[in-house]
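>> Question from a student workshop board

For tomorrow's exercise we were told to take the sequence and the ligand below, predict the bound structure, and bring the output to class. My setup keeps failing. Could a helper post the expected result so I can at least see what it should look like? The ligand is thiamine diphosphate.
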Amino acid sequence: MQFHRKDLTNEQLVQLYRRLLLPRMIEEKMLVLLRQGKISKWFSGIGQEAIAVGATMALQNDEWIMPLHRNLGVFTTRDMPLGKLFKQWQGNKDGYSKGRERSFHFGSREHHICGMISHLGPQLAIADGVALAHQLSNEAKVALAFTGDGGTSEGDFHEALNVAAVWDLPVIFIIENNGYGLSTPVHEQYRCFSLAERAQGYGMQGVRIDGNNILEVFDTVSGVRDYCLRERKPYLIECMTFRMRGHEEASGVKYVPPHLFELWEKKDPIKNYEGWLLQEGLLNEQTVTDIREEFRDYIETELKQAYEAPAIVPDTEEELKDMYAPLPGNTPYKETTAAKKSGRFPTAISQQPSANPAAGPEKRFIDGIKEALWQSMEKHPNLVLMGQDIAEYGGAFKITEGFSDKFGKARVRNTPICESAIVGAALGLSLQGYKSMMEMQFADFVTVGFNQIVNNLAKLHYRWGQNADVVIRMPTGGGVGAGPFHSQSNEAWFVHTPGLKVVYPSTPAEAKGLLNAAINDPNPVLYFEHKALYRSISGPVPEEYYEVEIGKARLVQEGEDCTLITYGSGVHWALEYASKHPDRSFYILDLRTLLPLDYDAIATAVKATGKLLLLHEDTLTGGIGGEIAAWVAEHCFEYLDAPVVRCASLDTAIPFNIDLEKNFMAYSRLGQSIDQLLRY
Ligand SMILES: Cc1ncc(C[n+]2csc(CCOP(=O)(O)OP(=O)(O)O)c2C)c(N)n1
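>> Workshop helper replied:
Here is what the output should look like for this input. Compare the format with yours to find the bug.
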């Protein structure tokens, strides 16, 4: 192994050695603890330390790194206190994730490290978002993300590199090519000669280097960092290395030919570098012994501290609370006239009296959405809009028409067709204090960004206290003859995911107020907007900026015969049915927010009539109706005068043919369901 010191000072060279040695010694200790049964799982990076350490040393301390499971060297080089790291690995409350996350699946704002989730790939696009924030703020900083050779086969790798290239983002992507993805050798993983070659396909530069040579890694990443800042472009580095231990300790290495261990043992990054430093006279046997002794004492002391930490006492309230970031300042809100009149609706309707739908000019549903976006862009200079065709073209539904002229293309961004990477980038923006709104062209396409939403955005705050300030607009629903992949109601997927908020307005005024509230909320919010309502529904919309509080249902009308709880298009079905049956008196509640549900309003609605029908466009099985029915059975049983009835769409895909679609829709069975309920 050739070492070229270039212009590094003796102190820097020794410092690199110390940085390299510490994670190795920690790992050796962890392996002992593992054998003693004192820790449960360990993903070893032994033999690969030069990559994490060299790359981290080449960055500034406030540049974000997205590390993986073998990158202990990132954490130690950023000087994270070892005692706290040990507590983290032991699942202690005083670790970095209050005992909620394992191994390296956590982050720390203070150290500019955004830890991985278990899924390989999603961390890459987060680096895009961070780099975009730097670009928007005109800061000379890069972001760096790691992947393994196996992880390069994920679609997320492709999407993240493509977005970084198209948007000219200063991101350094590092592949640690250690020969295996669990047991799968690289020849069963990809067909190109070197992974660095792929860079060209994305329109970026790439290089393959010896990942076991600390000076080569440090020098390359330093140079690449300068390049990314100077040229305003991303860069791909493939570091060749080898995994000297099993995928994780328990899984063994039977599938690895023994001669490879002999070969790579000779290329050990620490032995080789230490040997060179000794040869150059920068270290001697005594200094090596002293450094090792110092680290051994440090590890033992910090470990002792971790062992002495008290065991966790579960606190359910804290567990639930920490799923969400707190709201910024609580604006008091007032009840509407309808709520006051009813006397039975304890929760307030909107944060501002001006949200009273009577107070503004007549506008369409789509205008409510547009106005909220426009006013939120004015209110939040750190808000970025992203989506396919949303800039000059104005989006598939023309909601952002004129936005790029007013706010510029930096803040109103056309995206490549990469849903997963854009959600990831939205998370990255949030790390740097930006807000973002991503327009899903159709709610159906969320499936290809699903992982980022339900695993990254939703769980981030609970895992390590970092909020994901992201709104995803979801043009949803059927009734327009668009077939199975442009009409789905998929809100229930997200209602089942703690950490998200899910809102679903039914009127133009609420469309505006709820979108403003969603954007102002520091948590990830899925905002469902029914496409069939865009231009078919009008109503008064206050002109000024206002919010409708998330988590509060709306009493649509009072009634005595039965209660209809619904949302979205269901509200209009309920009203239409009621207007056609003046002889029957319906209490109608519009949920408006599906997560969290307004249980007070639901209970009040049940008590009002004793007969409950749950109505939604979504399919029956696993829909929100089932959840509410269960809750009502548990909490309002004594107020019920009949079994709860659900009226939902058929448990099929949504058909294209208009007559088939009508038959599919819940509305076609609403009369029947109401008759059944009232007959009981
Ligand atoms: C999306 C996803 N699929 C499968 C896994 C299971 N898994 C965890 S690590 C791993 C191998 C990863 O190989 P590579 O990316 O080369 O990284 P290495 O472990 O070699 O550092 C696999 C298959 C996962 N975590 N995520």
